[in-house]
Specification:
The chain is mainly alpha-helical and 274 residues long. Helix content is 51%, strand content 4%. The chain has a two-stranded antiparallel sheet with strand order 1-2. The radius of gyration is 26 Å and the shape is extended.
């Protein structure tokens, strides 16, 4: 996002980037030098358009206002002075699994010491540092070496049979789950408002949570409530004992008897009481 914001600012401003204020009109480029993109530049070369200098000027001014508003909104939502976010790059597969790239970043302690809720204590931090130094010396499976997505890569490392780098993998996954803005939280709140309406105001927290998770899993696999096909095992699990467990006499047996149902052919698992 920092790169996007910088690119937008360079379209219409000439100040050094670290001193840029998107509202400072004294630092704006002239309308004739504003970068509009290749297609727009080619389009305005048409003679009929070139004759309307007033419209070209108005178009450039509107473009600048649009870019300025975009940059201001980005600055509101992202803290580019945050010291943690730049350090997260050290957890990308291309950096974490390369001894040459790793030398360009500080020790992992610089990141772990700022995240006390994820890792605490010198012994735990030392474990992370040892595993980060060792992981580049071990020949990992080709599946891990070729994986470019950070979350998938660290999940594969966590699931290694040796468990040698499990602390580092769990730390990396926890850090990668940190929201860089409140946008993801706001999306969840909006979804909950659609689920827990006035007519459904007695839904308990576990039901709302399960509904949100189910919706996210379906969306992840390009499914929806129309095309999703429940399995027979799912239908069988929606029984009187699972819907109304309080009316069942043997509650202890009910708590221990759980059925794992895979809602797709991949990895999403839901626990439903049978």
């Amino acid at each position: 996002m920092e790169l996007v914001c910088t690119d937008l600012l360079l379209c219409y401003m000439k100040t050094p980037l670290h001193l840029i204020n998107p509202n400072d009109e004294n630092q704006f480029l002239s309308t004739s030098t504003v970068y509009l993109g290749v297609k727009v530049l080619n389009q305005i070369k048409i003679s009929a358009i070139q004759q309307r200098k007033d419209l070209l000027k108005e178009f450039s001014n509107r473009f600048i206002n649009f870019i300025k508003t975009s940059c201001l909104q980005i600055n509101k939502r992202y803290d580019f002075s945050n010291t943690i976010l730049p350090l997260v790059n050290m957890l990308t597969p291309s950096v974490a699994l390369s001894s040459k790239m790793r030398e360009k970043y500080p020790p992992i302690t610089c990141l772990s010491e700022q995240l006390h809720r994820i890792v605490n204590g010198d012994s735990n931090i030392q474990k992370l540092d040892d595993q980060r130094r060792t992981i580049v010396l071990v020949r990992l499976p080709n599946e891990i070496q070729t994986e470019k997505e950070s979350d998938k890569c660290w999940t594969l490392i966590k699931e290694l049979g040796t468990g040698k780098f499990i602390d580092l993998a769990e730390f990396a996954l926890a850090v990668l789950s940190l929201p860089h803005s409140n946008a993801s939280c706001e999306r969840v709140f909006s979804k909950i408002n659609c689920i827990k309406t006035k007519s459904r105001n007695k839904l308990i927290t576990s039901t709302v949570s399960a509904t949100v998770i189910t919706s996210e899993c379906l969306k992840k696999n390009n499914l929806n409530c129309i095309c999703f096909q429940p399995t027979k095992l799912m239908f069988d699990s929606v029984s009187y004992t699972s819907l109304y467990p309080s009316s069942v006499t043997n509650k202890n047996e009910l708590n221990t008897n759980k059925t794992m149902i895979n809602i797709n052919e991949e990895e999403e698992i839901f626990l439903l009481e049978d």
